[in-house]
Amino acid sequence: MALSIQPQHDLSPIEINAIEEWLYSYNRRAVARNDARGLAFVIRDGAGRTIGVAAGYSWAGTSELKQMWVDEAYRGRGYARELLNAFVAEAAIRGVRRIWVASYDFQAPGMYEKAGFERVAEFSDWPEGHCNVILCKTLIGRSKPSLERRHPPTQDNF
Fold first, then answer.
1. What CATH number is given for 34-138 in this structure?
2. What is the mean pLDDT of residues 75-104?
3. What is the CA radius of gyration of the chain?
4. How many CB atoms lie within 10 A of CB 121?
């Protein structure tokens, strides 16, 4: 059977969800953890319209905040911080050790830093003329990420 690569730049949400499930299936087997769960909070106005969202997931002791959005008419009132606080609190209840988020320099890296997130990487010119900032928060009572080996080298494991 001949395979071919074809452009398809408009994948449907159903197709994207299937891809996410294929990736998670592999990752789940690779680390022997089957505890992925969505993690999201929404703020709605009196008419039920969404005015703010913090959405991501938790899995294997980590969490990613994938989307944070507050309607422009409601910005500057502390709603993003409330959403972030709720997200972090729920992650802690789930036993998450670290939360990470990406934020462009023109979005809200300062808000995340004020909430205890630390910059761990910056990608210049992403998009051109700006940078993409990756931030991580280690939750209280948990160990900080380490680049050191888990066990010091010995003759048995070196």
1. 3.40.630.30
2. 97
3. 19
4. 12
pLDDT above 50 for 26? yes
| pLDDT at site 1 | 87
Closest residue by Cα to residue 51 from 41, 42, 60: 42
Which strands make up the sheet holding 50-59, listed edge to edge? 37-44, 50-59, 62-70, 98-104, 131-138, 118-124
How far apart are alpha carbons 96 and 58 in whole angstroms?
A: 7
3-state secondary structure of 91: helix
Could you tell me how far CA 96 lies from the centroid of its own chain?
12
Q: Where are the domains of the chain?
A: 34-138
Residue 101: exposed, middle, or buried by beta-carbon count in 10 A (0-12, 13-18, 19+)? buried
CA distance 137 to 109: 12
Tokens of 92: 């802690």
Over residues 61-83, the mean pLDDT reads 97
Indicate the range of 1-5, 53-57, 112-116 predicted with least confidence. 1-5
According to DSSP, residue 107 is labeled S
Give the SS3 label for residue 99.
strand
Task: Band the pLDDT of 63: cuts 50, 70, 90.
Answer: very high
